[in-house]
Amino acid sequence: MLQALTRQVSPNFAECELTFLERQPIDLAKAIAQHRAYEACLSALGVQVISLPADPSFPDAVFVHLVRDPRPTISSLVEGWRSRRFLAYRGMPGWPYRDWSFLLPPGWPALAGCSLVEIAAHQWQVANATIEDDLRAAPPGSFCKVDYDDLVRDPREIMHRIAALARLGWDDEVEAAVSAALPLSRVTLSAPAPHKWWQHEAQLAALLPQR
Questions:
Q1: 48 lies in which domain range?
Q2: Could you tell me the pTM of the whole model?
Q3: Rounded distance between C-alpha atoms, residue 115 and residue 45, angstroms
Q4: Among residues 7, 54, 155, 185, which one has the fewest Cβ atoms lying within 10 Å of its Cβ?
């Protein structure tokens, strides 16, 4: 089952910092009601909602969009599909693979008969189009884009940018963490390699715009 991790609206929501909008009155009761309606909608769609308690220390948030070359990203999605470690839906009627991994995009039944590369490419395209649409509607200054290769090459510089955006403090512990090589993600299936995606090169060339 797909899960969603949410957090209740902070009781200090009305005291959030504004760096990109003029201060306006915030109706806390309305914000709480809207958040409950959002969680109810997720539940109605079959998502298991895991709701964390409100944290007065964090009344608001900013957004970081991590951008990566789609070719290795899609290749990693294919690897994840084949591993069956990231199943989101099981026993889907009429679906030739029976189970579904990762994001379930609108119109997914039309992907029946497609290769895993085509399915993963569609997942990537839908997810990124949705992110881009949402960011266009977000106020300027409430988000930043980070290139994956830049993060791997110079994590210290990139994390300084993110910390400045979020107005986070910087101490010796953070400095030590970002000055060393980044560890592998706990969900990594195989070690990263610059040309690992080449095994799907021909299919990806037909699905993605030429670079």
A1: 3-52
A2: 0.73
A3: 27
A4: 185
